[in-house]
Amino acid sequence: MAASVRTFSRAHLSADASYTLVLDRLDGSIVRLEQLAAQQQGGFTTKHSSVQRRKDIRRKLQRGLLRYVVHSAGDADTERAGLAEKFRLPSTSATNAAFRAAAIKLLEEGRANQELLVKHGLSATLLDELDATIKQFDASLEESDDGKQAHVAARAEMKELSDEIVRIVAILDGFNQYRFQNDPELIVAWESARHVVTTPPKEEQPTTPSNPVPSGLEPAA
Fold it and tell me: Domain range holding 120?
């Protein structure tokens, strides 16, 4: 939006040093705003891709690895009564934090009873794969949080820069109203250029909560 003001200002330069200083401030603010817009989009993309990857990992754990451990424990219960009670699949609707805690507990119980579970059909390498997959799940949670923070931080700074740009345009308005006071056509052209900056934007619904929920506590997708 401020690009039209910058374009007009460059096309109608003033020899006054103060004008150049203000224009340089505007240019720097616009450049930074563009960088932040890219950062904000990158944060959103990172969060979205990590959420999708986490769904896939969670599905692999729920339907494959964890279920395999639980079934092996169920069969081993015939040899060691009460063992199956220690091996419960997490709920499909559990939060990510609760799901992770349940997966870790199954891994620990599996390690503690590995010899017996292997006798009852558990692959000797499955617990190592389970451990590695839980680590992938953890990495996706961390990536989501990083993406959220990048998005939120960029949005906050963009708001500050937008306010700064409005102040700069107000300075340029005073300057141009003064120097173009005898040139109605340039006044009209300037008014048109600054209109998109000084007109308040329509209220938009936020795409991210102001206090985003940590990834581990968000509901299961």
Answer: 3-8+18-200
Task: Say how far apart CA 60 and CA 64 lie, in whole Å.
Answer: 5
At 25, give phi and psi (nearest 5°): -60, -45
Give the per-residue pLDDT at 164.
92
- In the chain, which stretches have pLDDT less than 70? 1, 196-221
Q: Which residue has the tokens 């581990």?
A: 216
SS3 41: helix
Measured CA to CA in angstroms, residue 183 lies from 51, 158, 169, 178, 219 at distances of 57, 35, 19, 10, 62
pLDDT in tens, 22-35: 999 999 999 998 88
In a domain, 213, yes or no: no
pLDDT of residue 221: 43
Q: How many domains does the chain have?
A: 1
pLDDT score of 203: 42
With both helix axes pointing from N to C terminus, report the angle between 184-198 and 3-11 in degrees, rounded to the nearest 10: 160
In 3-state terms the chain splits into helix, strand, coil percentages (rounded to 5) of 75, 0, 25
Whole-prediction pTM: 0.60
H helical segments located in 61-95: 66-76
